[in-house]
Amino acid sequence: MNTMSEELMNGYLNGTLSQREERELLAWVKESEDNLKVFKQFLADHQFSQSLGDETSQAWAKLKVKLTSQPERKSSRVLQLPRWVRVAAIAVIALLAGFFVNQFLQPDMSTLALNEIVVPNGEKAQVRLSDGTVVYLNAGTTFSYPAAFSQKQREVLLVGEAFFEVSKDRSKPFIIETPDFDVRVTGTSFNLKTYPEDHENSLTLHSGSVEITQAGKNYQLNPGDQYTLNTETQQASVGKGNLAKSRLWNEGGIYLENLDLEEIARVLERKFDVELIIAKEELKVIRYNGQFKAHESLEEVLHVIQKTSPVKFDYELNETKDQITIH
């Protein structure tokens, strides 16, 4: 164990880490099995209880977002935390329970439990929160929220994509935590895409205003703006967004903006609940711009892309029609 990691663990223990230092520690814990073992031993040496009760549920959910590791960029139906990352989160919970409970939760224990919605591929969902906020959830999304919000703020957790219609309350900001950045609003509507496996994630603001915090930087958005984050380089930018196309998924449609075939495969996997296998590496660089209506089938979408692509390819479905190979 080096001096830096020991200082970070002690800081985490005392609740004195900055956001940047917290990210550094979590990255170090995920770096290797050895680091995880060192961290668990650190907890044992300080004689912390490993028992988990209802009062730690919000801290656990927050850590699942922070510890979501980025998977390999290949077709995958379900995004799951590796087992050792889940173990790390359980170990960390004892350290963070008191800090998060004191900072984020009200004394009424009935409000501590978080509800979690996991939307499978091929499906969508809608939920109305206790403050009247309505959230529309896209396929492949996990959304965690409390049964009732605290007196100081409204805090939820998102991995995936959702369109938010946030009820206005200037005295109680609405905060969304995602794997890469946090969003703070009071009353507004926007589309938020934050799939950890995607090359780019974004927020497109329809009304009101939002503040985004990412890697120590703050971004203020006005209606019509779109914040975009490159998840590989962690470089962010703000420009004009296309409001109608940003939420086309909520109407059942598909909008592909200069995506390569590998990225398109992920979009189609979520939409149609199938597995797409790209058999040839050279096909992954094919890029496509297009828009498809809700009634168009997977085969119709692939046929259009196939006919307009400068690089020719074929595709075939298996007998059960839940796997497509592109070659």
UniProtKB/TrEMBL annotation:
Source superkingdom: Bacteria
Pfam families xrefs? FecR, FecR_C
Q: Which residues form the FecR protein domain?
A: 116-211
Tell me where the signal peptide lies.
Answer: none
Keywords per UniProt: Membrane, Transmembrane, Transmembrane helix
Locate the Protein FecR C-terminal domain: which residues?
A: 255-317
What is the protein named? Answer: FecR family protein
Q: Which organism is it from?
A: Sunxiuqinia elliptica
